[in-house]
Amino acid sequence: MDGADAPQPARSGSGVTACSTSTAQGRMNGGANASNNAAAAMEERFADVCKRKLVLDESTTRQAMQLFKETKIILLSSMSSLGSGSPEEIERSWCACVLYCVSKLGNAGKAKEDRGITLRQILRAFDLKIVDFFKEMPQFCIKVGFILTGLYGSDWEKRLELQELQANLVHLCSLGRHYRRAYQELFLLNDGKPANNSSELNVQQASEYYDFGWLLFLVLRNQASSAVKNLLTSTTELVSVLAVLIIHIPVRLRNFSIEDSSCFAKKSDKGVNLIASLCERYLTSEDELSKALQKTNILIKDILKKKPCSDVSECQQGSLSFIDPG
Asked: Which residues form the Retinoblastoma-associated protein N-terminal domain (predicted)?
């Protein structure tokens, strides 16, 4: 017994501990690999959209890829808090935010006439609604603000013009509702069904006139400088478009009779004073509306390559009946 080896301390569990450590390390490595693979796949998809869908120039693509690479880790770590949609939807929103930042902040050296990629193109490329974009963009800016400061300077938020863009959208939505309501009061509007006592042709024409009026207004508004692009000025321009439509849309598509309509209260022995009546109805200035009409006529001339009617007889007599040409 004296020569017997002394009993060794118990080592129970040491093998389990080593095995557990090895397993945990393997899981960590596996998680890191999965994260790296996910990041690489996102980067590849983003690059594909930039090159194939949007066909961006080399400089813009390089800037977009740089910003995406520097922010993708934040995207991966924030997947659960960025939105209520699926990971795919969140990724598309993030990519759209990246490209919008590059389009606004990364084009300082470009000429003014080269506006680069537009928000509309970005939203189409990522199949994203503008409401969802405005929902995610503020969160994106909060999370990557320090990166934007490093890349584009401390004034990036001002140059991004996000608040101005949101205000512009709110104004356009309000003006769009105003235009639709006014058009429906004045003319037939195609809502998917033929209007009473009207043919399919009349309804189709009404829809085309409606679209033309709205597009004409958008071009007018786009030409205005940002300093005067306010809700009041835009409303006056919208009323000028209504005046043009009243004069040129055929009488059969009207919802009113101009000689006895309460819509046109300003009258004389020569007929309805269209400008004064519209100003009273839509609470705008006659001087401002006259100026807006001049701009609208010039724009129509430039777009359609047609000269305005030099004589009342050249216009549709039915549309001008009971309207004072003076």
From this structure: 103-248
CATH classification number, 30-160, choose in 1.10.472, 3.30.410, 3.60.21, 2.60.120:
1.10.472
The string of pLDDT tens digits covering residues 58-69 is: 999 999 999 999
Which ranges of the chain would DSSP assign to H, the alpha helix? 14-48, 58-77, 87-105, 119-125, 130-152, 156-160, 162-186, 200-223, 231-248, 274-282, 286-304, 317-320
The type of residue at 93 is S
Domain boundaries, the chain: 30-160, 164-320
**What is the spatial distance between Cα 289 and Cα 281, in angstroms, rounded to a whole number?**
12
pLDDT tens for 276-311 read: 889 999 999 999 999 999 999 898 888 877 665 544
Distance CA 249, CA 183 (A): 11
Looking at the chain, how many residues does it have?
A: 326
Position 170, amino acid = V
User: Would you place residue 26 in the very low, low, confident or very high pLDDT band (cuts 50, 70, 90)?
Assistant: very low
Position 252 scores a pLDDT of 85
Alpha carbon distance 65, 42 (integer Å): 11
Q: Is 310 exposed, middle or buried (0-12, 13-18, 19+ CB in 10 A)?
A: exposed
Asked if 94 contacts 140 with a C-beta cutoff of 8 angstroms, the reply is yes
- How many other C-beta atoms lie within 10 A of the C-beta of residue 292? 23
